[in-house]
Amino acid sequence: MNLFYKVDGDDFLLAGEASGKVKNILKKLGIDSTKIRKIAVAMYEAEMNMVIHAHGGTIQVDVLPEKIEVILEDKGPGIPDIDLAMQEGYSTATHEIRELGFGAGMGLPNMKKYSDELKITSIVGEGTKVQLTVFLK
């Protein structure tokens, strides 16, 4: 099963909508609840980062018999130092974003924690691609 979503940037009312839809679809497919939680949390964090930092992007979800793969791509500012960005508490979120309750610097660490494989590629000034995988077996 292949799913595709477009994420609008800067719209916090719709933020997390795609990850919620995927969660519901996986429930209907009878996927194990611990696997659903992993993919829902990791995908939500990535989706929020797209809204906060990159003005949106696209999400492709492939549900395969052995794994769920999620690819999130944006045309945002990119991540200059991925290792630094992976540190808990590190954030480039603005004061306004933090006042909304976001930008605590846990997005990338949570993506890593809740996925079985995580690959991030980013080019400053061009955008970021996040690949999340959760194995079902």
TrEMBL record:
Q: Please give the superkingdom of this protein's source.
A: Bacteria
InterPro entries linked:
HATPase_C_sf, HATPase_dom
Q: Where is the Histidine kinase/HSP90-like ATPase domain?
A: 21-133
What GO MF terms are annotated?
Answer: ATP binding
Record bears the keyword Nucleotide-binding: yes
Entry's Gene3D superfamilies?
Answer: Histidine kinase-like ATPase, C-terminal domain
Signal peptide feature range: none
UniProtKB keywords: ATP-binding, Nucleotide-binding
Name used for this protein in its record: ATP-binding protein
Annotated organism of origin: Holtiella tumoricola
